[in-house]
C-alpha cells in the first residue's frame, strides 16, 4: 500500500476532521485502541541527541515532549493508536536523597507544567500531532498528594514545609494532618495518612474538604480541555475516598483508568464504579507469577483472576487497562532469560478482554528490575525495528487484535473464556475469532493443548492459522484440536476465513490468497485504512482540481 504517498493528504484530511469533531473519548472508544505507555524523560529527546542515562542515579536524562513527537512513527508502526505519557505538571526540584522527579509523580504545582519536558505549546503540539494521526493522548495525573521537601526531617507537622509552594492550595489547611500510613487494613489510614517517609513525605491532600474537591474538579476539567486530552491514567486511587471519584471522572469527561495497587478483586471492584475502570493489577500479579516462575508457575491462577474480574468489575474486564510491565514493577527479563517465555508473556494484554497497554522498552527486550532500574532510556536501544525483534512481534499482536475487531465486532463485548487443560503449564483462551495458546514450559518443553469438541469452538475441518508463524492446522472431524508446542512457543489461531480482509496478517493463508506475509506487513490495519482515506482524499482533490481547471478552460 502506498502509505507514504497518501500521508500528506491523510494529515490534511484528519486535521480538518479532528478540528470539526474534537469529541471526548469514552471508555467504549478506548476499547478499540491499544496504548503505548512511556516515561517522557526516558523516551526521546527533541533534538535527537542520545545522552547516557544511568537509571540508578535517578536524575533527569533529557527526554521531552518534542522528543515524543519526533518518534511517533516508531510508536505507530508498532500498531499503537494511543500514547500514555507520564505526569506533566510541575514537580518538586532537588531532592538529594531520593533523586529527581524525572518520573513526574512528585507534583508541587498542578497549575504549571514541568519545564524539563517543554512548554505549554510543546504539549499542545504533541496532542495535535497525535490527533493528526488519529491517535489518542492519555495523561497521567496525581491528586492524592503534593510534595515539598521538609526543612527538618526530624520535626513534625506542620512546621517544616513551605506550603506556599504547594499550588493551587498554598496552606496547611488543605492537607490531612501528618501521619504516615501504618495499617493497610485500616482504610481510613490508607486514605488520610501520608505515603512516603520523613525525608520525602507525599503530603496527603484533604479530599474530604469540599473546597479542595471543587478546586480539583475544576482543575481536571481545565487540563483536559486545554490540552485536548483523550484519557486519564489516575495515580494512587485507593488513597482517596471512593466518593471523590465519580465527580472527578465526570468533570474529566474522558476515559479514566485508575491505579488501585492491590491483587484483591473484591477490594478493587467498587472503584470501577467511580472511574471508568482500573489498571488490572490482580490479573497482572497472576500473569507475572505464572511466567516468572517458569514451568512451576501456575497458569490456572490466571484464569481464576480473570474470571473474578469478569464477574465483579463494572463492565466486566472490557474497560480495564491490561498490562504486564510498568514503571513500578520489575520487567520480566530482569529474572527470565528464556525467550520463549518472554514471547508468551508479552502476548497477554493483546488477547484478553481489556485494553492492551505496552510499557515502553519491553519491545526492545529491556531487563530493568525494580524502580528505578525499569525506567531505562529508550534511545540507548537505537529504536530497533528488526524483523526478528519483539518490536515486530508487538506489531503482529496489534494487527491480530485489530483484525479480530474488524472481522467480528462482538470481539469487544464477548468475554474471553478458558478451556480446561491437562496441566497448569498451559493455558487456552478463546475470544472469537482468536484462540490463544500460552505456555510457561520454556524452550526445551513440548507440551500439548487440548481443545475438545465439547468446548464447542469449531466445526469439523476448519483451517486455523497461527498468526505468529502463519502455519496452519485443521480441526478434527469432531471439531476438536490437539496442538503441541515446539520449544515452548505460544500460538494465536484465527480461522483462515477471518484473515482475508486487511492483507496485513498471514494473508497468503487466507481464503483469497492475496497480499503479504506478516514480516513484510506495512503496519496496523488502521494505518492502512488511513492510507486508503488519504488516497481517496487525493483522488477527490484531484477531481476537484480537474473540474475547476476544466471550467476555467471553458
Ligand atoms: C539536546 O537537548 C538536551 C536536553 O534539552 C540538551 O541538554 C543538549 O545540550 C541538547 N544537545 C544539542 C546537541 O543541542
Ligand atoms: C528539627 O526538629 C527537631 C524536633 O522538633 C528539633 O529538635 C531540632 O532542633 C530541629 N533542627 C533544626 C536544625 O531546626
Ligand atoms: C478547606 O480548604 C480550603 C481551601 O484550600 C481552606 O481555605 C479551608 O480552611 C479548609 N477547611 C478546613 C475545615 O480545613
Ligand atoms: C484507622 O486509622 C485512623 C487514621 O490513622 C485512626 O484514626 C483510627 O483510629 C484507625 N482505626 C483503627 C480501628 O485502628
Ligand atoms: C479483599 O477485599 C475485600 C473487600 O475489601 C475484603 O473483605 C477481603 O477480606 C479481602 N481479602 C483478602 C484476602 O485480603
Ligand atoms: C493453580 O491455581 C488454581 C486456581 O487458582 C488452583 O485451583 C490450583 O490448586 C493451583 N494448582 C497448583 C498446583 O498450585
Ligand atoms: C533456552 O533458554 C535458555 C535461557 O535463556 C538459553 O540459555 C538456551 O540457549 C535456550 N535454548 C534454546 C534451544 O533456545
Ligand atoms: C473472506 O472471504 C470469504 C470468501 O471469499 C468471504 O465469504 C468472507 O466474507 C470474507 N471475510 C471477510 C471478513 O470479509
Ligand atoms: C462473532 O463472535 C460472536 C461471539 O463470540 C459469535 O457468536 C459469532 O458467531 C461470531 N461471528 C462470526 C462471523 O464469527
Ligand atoms: C502459510 O504461509 C506460511 C508463510 O507464508 C507458509 O510457511 C505456510 O506453509 C502456509 N501454509 C499454508 C497451508 O498455506
Ligand atoms: C486429543 O487428545 C485427547 C487427550 O489425549 C484425546 O483423547 C483425543 O483423542 C485427541 N484428539 C485428537 C483429534 O487427536
From TrEMBL:
Q: Which UniProt keywords apply?
A: Calcium, Carbohydrate metabolism, Disulfide bond, Glycoprotein, Glycosidase, Hydrolase, Membrane, Metal-binding, Signal, Transmembrane, Transmembrane helix
Provide the leader sequence positions.
1-27
Catalytic residue list:
235, 259
Q: Where does Ca(2+) 2 bind?
A: 235, 259
> In the record, what terms sit under GO molecular function?
alpha-amylase activity; calcium ion binding
| Residues noted as binding Ca(2+) 1 in the record, renumbered to the chain | 144, 191, 204, 239
| CDD domains assigned | AmyAc_euk_AmyA (cd11319)
- List residues traversing the bilayer: 533-553
- GO biological process: any one? carbohydrate catabolic process
Residue pairs linked by disulfide bridges in the UniProt entry: 53-61, 179-193, 470-506
Site, as annotated: Transition state stabilizer: 328
Any single Pfam family the record assigns to this protein: A_amylase_dom_C
Extract the InterPro entries matched here: A-amylase-like (IPR013777), A_amylase_C_dom (IPR015340), GH (IPR017853), GH13_cat_dom (IPR006047), Glyco_hydro_b (IPR013780)
Entry binding sites for substrate: 106, 145, 233, 263, 328, 375
UniProt EC number: 3.2.1.1
Q: Does the keyword Glycoprotein apply?
A: yes
Q: Which residues belong to any copy of the Glycosyl hydrolase family 13 catalytic domain?
A: 37-401
Cofactor requirement? Ca(2+)
From the UniProt record, list the reaction(s) this protein catalyses. Endohydrolysis of (1->4)-alpha-D-glucosidic linkages in polysaccharides containing three or more (1->4)-alpha-linked D-glucose units
The family line of this record is: Belongs to the glycosyl hydrolase 13 family.
Designated name of the protein: alpha-amylase
Q: Which organism is it from?
A: Lentinula raphanica
Amino acid at each position: 500500500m502506498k502509505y507514504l504517498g497518501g500521508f500528506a493528504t491523510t494529515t490534511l484530511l484528519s486535521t480538518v476532521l479532528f478540528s470539526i469533531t474534537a469529541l471526548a473519548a469514552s471508555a467504549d472508544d478506548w476499547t478499540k485502541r491499544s496504548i503505548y505507555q512511556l516515561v517522557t524523560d526516558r523516551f526521546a529527546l527533541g533534538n535527537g541527541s542520545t545522552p547516557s542515562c544511568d537509571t540508578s542515579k535517578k536524575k533527569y536524562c533529557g527526554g521531552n515532549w518534542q522528543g515524543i513527537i519526533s518518534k511517533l512513527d516508531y510508536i505507530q508502526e508498532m500498531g499503537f493508536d494511543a500514547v500514555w505519557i507520564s505526569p506533566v505538571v510541575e514537580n518538586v526540584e532537588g531532592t538529594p536523597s531520593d533523586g529527581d522527579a524525572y518520573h513526574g509523580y512528585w507534583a508541587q504545582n498542578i497549575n504549571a507544567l514541568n519545564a524539563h519536558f517543554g512548554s505549554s505549546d510543546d504539549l499542545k503540539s504533541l496532542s495535535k500531532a497525535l490527533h493528526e494521526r488519529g491517535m489518542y493522548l492519555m495523561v497521567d495525573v496525581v491528586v492524592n498528594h503534593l510534595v515539598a521537601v521538609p526543612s527538618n526531617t526530624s520535626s513534625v507537622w506542620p512546621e517544616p514545609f513551605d506550603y506556599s509552594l504547594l499550588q493551587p492550595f498554598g496552606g496547611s489547611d488543605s492537607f490531612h494532618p501528618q501521619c504516615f500510613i501504618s495499617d493497610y487494613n485500616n482504610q481510613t489510614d490508607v486514605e488520610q495518612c501520608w505515603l512516603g517517609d520523613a525525608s520525602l513525605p507525599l503530603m496527603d491532600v484533604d479530599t474530604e474538604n469540599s473546597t479542595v474537591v471543587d478546586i480539583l474538579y475544576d482543575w481536571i476539567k481545565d487540563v483536559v480541555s486545554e490540552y485536548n486530552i483523550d484519557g486519564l491514567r489516575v495515580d494512587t486511587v485507593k488513597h482517596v475516598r471512593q466518593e471523590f471519584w465519580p465527580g472527578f471522572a465526570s468533570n474529566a469527561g474522558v476515559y479514566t483508568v485508575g491505579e488501585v495497587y492491590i491483587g484483591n478483586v473484591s477490594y478493587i471492584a467498587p472503584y470501577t464504579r467511580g472511574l471508568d475502570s482500573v489498571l488490572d493489577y490482580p490479573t497482572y500479579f497472576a500473569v507475572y507469577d505464572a511466567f516468572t516462575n517458569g514451568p512451576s508457575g501456575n497458569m490456572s491462577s490466571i484464569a481464576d483472576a480473570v474470571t473474578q474480574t469478569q464477574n465483579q468489575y463494572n463492565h466486566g474486564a472490557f474497560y480495564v487497562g491490561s498490562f504486564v510491565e510498568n514503571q513500578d514493577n520489575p520487567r520480566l527479563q530482569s529474572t527470565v532469560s528464556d525467550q520463549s517465555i518472554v514471547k508468551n508473556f508479552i502476548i497477554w494484554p493483546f488477547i484478553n478482554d481489556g485494553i492492551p497497554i505496552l510499557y515502553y522498552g519491553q519491545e526492545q527486550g529491556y531487563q530493568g528490575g525494580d524502580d528505578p532500574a525499569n525506567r531505562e532510556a529508550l534511545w540507548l536501544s537505537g529504536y530497533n525495528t528488526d524483523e526478528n525483534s519483539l518490536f515486530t512481534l508487538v506489531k503482529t499482536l496489534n494487527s491480530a487484535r485489530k483484525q479480530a475487531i474488524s472481522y467480528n465486532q462482538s470481539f469487544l463485548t464477548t468475554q474471553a473464556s478458558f478451556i480446561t487443560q491437562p496441566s497448569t503449564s498451559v493455558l487456552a483462551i478463546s475470544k472469537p475469532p482468536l484462540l490463544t495458546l500460552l505456555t510457561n514450559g520454556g524452550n526445551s518443553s513440548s507440551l500439548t493443548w487440548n481443545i475438545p469438541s465439547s468446548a464447542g469452538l469449531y466445526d469439523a475441518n476448519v483451517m486455523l492459522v497461527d498468526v505468529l508463524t502463519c502455519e496452519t492446522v485443521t480441526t478434527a472431524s469432531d471439531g476438536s484440536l490437539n496442538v503441541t508446542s515446539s520449544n515452548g512457543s505460544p500460538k494465536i489461531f484465527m480461522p483462515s476465513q477471518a484473515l482475508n480482509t486487511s492483507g496485513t496478517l498471514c494473508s497468503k493463508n487466507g481464503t483469497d490468497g492475496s497480499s503479504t506475509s506478516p514480516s513484510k506487513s506495512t503496519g496496523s490495519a488502521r494505518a492502512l485504512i488511513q492510507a486508503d482515506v488519504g488516497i481517496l482524499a487525493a483522488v477527490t482533490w484531484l477531481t476537484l482540481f480537474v473540474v475547476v481547471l476544466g471550467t476555467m478552460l471553458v
